[in-house]
């Protein structure tokens, strides 16, 4: 059912805020993307860290059901709440460990 134009949610580039936040939060499942955010100093910005906290709503089942890879995505959201992790993700070794953990978890799901 279509909404009345006055009640419609505003669109940003043709997408709803939820769609944009969903796409962004799913990118967080990629350890190299987290590394990129750290390299660009986004993880040092208190406003950005507050935005990551706001995105915790994706942990609720009614929103988590839209995630393509809920395990890694929600794990990254959880880790990004920790200042120590936000400092460590800039290191390639940390990225490598996250990738290895993801591969092990994925292989375990198939057994």
TrEMBL record:
GO biological process per UniProt: regulation of DNA-templated transcription
Domain of life: Eukaryota
Main location (coarse class): nucleus
GO CC, alphabetical: mediator complex
Keywords in alphabetical order: Activator, Nucleus, Transcription, Transcription regulation
Presence of the UniProt keyword Phosphoprotein in the record: no
UniProt GO MF annotations: transcription coregulator activity
Subcellular location: Nucleus
InterPro entries hit by this protein: Med31_sf (IPR038089), Mediator_Med31 (IPR008831)
Subunit structure: Component of the Mediator complex.
Function: Component of the Mediator complex, a coactivator involved in the regulated transcription of nearly all RNA polymerase II-dependent genes. Mediator functions as a bridge to convey information from gene-specific regulatory proteins to the basal RNA polymerase II transcription machinery. Mediator is recruited to promoters by direct interactions with regulatory proteins and serves as a scaffold for the assembly of a functional preinitiation complex with RNA polymerase II and the general transcription factors.
PANTHER family for this protein: MEDIATOR OF RNA POLYMERASE II TRANSCRIPTION SUBUNIT 31 (PTHR13186)
Similarity comment: Belongs to the Mediator complex subunit 31 family.
Name by which UniProt lists this protein: Mediator of RNA polymerase II transcription subunit 31
């Amino acid at each position: 059912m279509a909404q009345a134009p006055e009640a419609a949610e505003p669109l940003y580039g043709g997408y709803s805020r939820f769609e944009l936040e969903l796409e962004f939060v799913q990118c967080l499942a990629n350890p190299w993307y987290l590394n990129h955010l750290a390299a660009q100093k986004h993880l040092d910005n208190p406003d950005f860290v507050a935005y990551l906290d706001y995105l915790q709503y994706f942990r609720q089942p009614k929103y988590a059901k839209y995630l393509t890879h809920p395990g890694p995505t929600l794990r990254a959201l959880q880790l990004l709440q920790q200042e120590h992790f936000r400092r460590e993700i800039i290191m390639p070794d940390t990225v490598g460990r996250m990738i290895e953990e993801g591969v092990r978890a994925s292989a375990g799901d198939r057994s």
